[in-house]
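Q: Give me a protein?
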Amino acid sequence: MYTAESISKILKGELLQQSGHPEIEHILLDSRKLLVPETSVFIPLVSERRNAHQYIDELYRKGVSNFIVSEPVSLGLFPKANFILVKNTLQALHALVAWHRQQFSIPVVGITGSNGKTIVKEWLYQLLEKDYNIVRSPKSYNSQTGVPLSVWNMRPENNLAIFEAGISQPGEMVNLEKVIRPTIGIFTNIGEAHSEGFLNLRQKVNEKLILFMKSDVLIYCKDYLTLNECVNNFHNLVGKREVDNDLQLLTWSRKTDADLRIIGVDKNNNHTRIDALYRQEPVYIRIPFVDEGSIENAIHCWALMLYLGKPHEEIRERMEHLGNIAMRLEMKQGINNCSIINDSYNSDIGSLAIALDFLSQQRQHPSRTVILSDILQSGKSDASLYEEVAGMLEQKGVQKVIGIGKNISREKALFRNLKSHFYANTEEFLAQVDTSEFQNESILVKGARVFQFERIGKLLEKKAHQTILEINLSAIAHNVKVYQGLLRAGTKLMAMVKAFAYGSGSYEIASLLQFHGVDYLAVAYADEGVELRRAGITLPIMVMNPEPSTFEAILQWNLEPELYSLHILEQFEEVVRYANKTAYPVHIKLDTGMHRLGFVPEDLPVLVQRLQQDGLFRVQSIFSHLAASEDAAMDDFSQRQFELFGKMSATLQQQLGYAVIRHIANSAAIHRLPDFQLDMVRLGIGMYGVDSNGAFQEKLRNVSTLKTTVAQLKHIPAGDTVGYGGKWKAGKPSVTATVRIGYADGYTRRLGNGRGSMLVRGKLAPVIGAVAMDMLMLDVSHIPDVAEGDEVIVFGEDLRVQDVAAWADTIPYEILTGISQRVKRVYFQE
């Protein structure tokens, strides 16, 4: 049991104030993720942009009484709290969890590499859960904060641990090695992913190998030449340590001699048989996957099973039943105006906390429901486990819980503060449920794999068009952080969610941005702002194109209009005066050369007079719009715009007599023209992963993936035509694929007759014939094994929206915002 007193001794910190001896069970790093106040210790981390010490007061009021801090605190404000003072809170986090790790002598598997870490970890859990009580990283918690949060979950009842570790720059793995201290190591592979912080591939490998400094064995593939060379050098280095703890290498290869020598890979009917020699003995496995990534991941798991001495027949039987891994939380439209969050492949306390955080971000519905299975392998008694679960649900504002399983049903009395229903198994729920009872709510479907909750997800999801736009919320959060990292101290961030958030969906994106602490939102029209307010968005919202017909709605929903002319100012003035409002927040748009909307210099004297009279308005910001910030050839023009804006805004601010936020920098200017940042910047297309600068583009992640499916295949003879107007003619016998997307979905007719292409089985297939309203055709003659129902990528990670835009002689904005509302949006968080 940990207390503030014992932790202060572990950290050699100063116990500034002690009030009682509450047991500490949970580490809290993010104030928004509070679940169990009474048993949590808050460790406020400090970065260049954010100092989490500012949230101590809020958490104290919510019941947290234990804090590890690195700054002075006014102790008198927190009489019932324990405070431990340390030099650096991140280092304290690592030191505390490293000490916790050393209390256990069980096997610990540490996994690193460029790809496959999470899949290998989850497959090992599937393969070994019958033999061990396993603690593992929830989802892909592999960062400087994710790793300690994972290792902190080690408990006396566990007899095997599996953790993954990822790094983005040199010097990070030495911290994670002390926290994980793996006895068994797996290096999955090496590639260019996340290489920006390293000089070269060799430095990246050597940094990752630090994880295995004290390991007993390292499992890896010899076929990665740089990895193999680095491992052998590393082995010679660590071989100099004490003789009784030599590092053993367990290798596998498809090309050369190895402990596990792969001699055959046969793919057939969605299964793969892998034959090998293990220390000269013939062995084989079959897995229900055929892609190369899954084959490699499975071999890593196989090697570990062999190292653990598992019988070959047992290994084969378990490998045969490997299941898909849900790498992400998905949110889809549900029946009866519901939103369905599908996490139906695992159920443990760690992943439940992550899923509840995601659920709590959703404010578009008045109520929240959780459908939850038994939680397996918790190590706690059912009573204490489900008492904690009930507390977590209440803390996150869940109103209704549906429990499925014998264990959770047995403890139903613990959920007395929630509306609750319980079923013995999934079949009983499906047989008895009345789907009409789910109305206008956010529903989290969270179950262990054996409960087959994917059937519940299919029941509750709205049946829709097979063309889907996937929105990666984790990628948006990443991109926002990239731009935030470029901002000067004190510079605010306004996020553009106009035009249905560039086609991505308004309230879903706004909820994410609100959660991640942006300062302002901007929409094009008042009805977009009203939709956000109805969905529970409380951030200030600027309306960029206010129309007189919407002025009353603007006042009703506390929206802040952009005023760009004396005429629009006079019209809004009348409505504000009639509503008996004063100091109403507005934003003043200046025209500095774009010549679209905005006040010009000669307007300023009258503008100031109108703004000051009667105290009707309070100017929140003054801003302008750069016409060509992305174009280096136009930098002189951008500079003239900036200088004119500086003069005009200074005149206004001086006359108004109070401080006003000034902003002119858009996405491109944030990184290209940093002197333009001023008090606030406006982040638009860059947030969605698009930038015209190739080098900067590499720092962003793809957000949107538009995909559809093959409806039908046709074999046509040479000379036949395809599509309306017969403008495409087969020059030879061809195979065509009709896919479920057309111009009514937003795929422009300009991309027909060979101008556009889509990805089928990883290869480009040209669009042939005219694009129809609901369908179009692709030439897939050169792509083997295409089948009806195959996935087709319209744009995404491997086919950039910029390329699609170039084929259509347009810009990415038009492609993204043109995606029809009939295309189903699926939101997911990795």
Q: What stands out?
A: Residues 635-656 form the longest helix (22 residues).
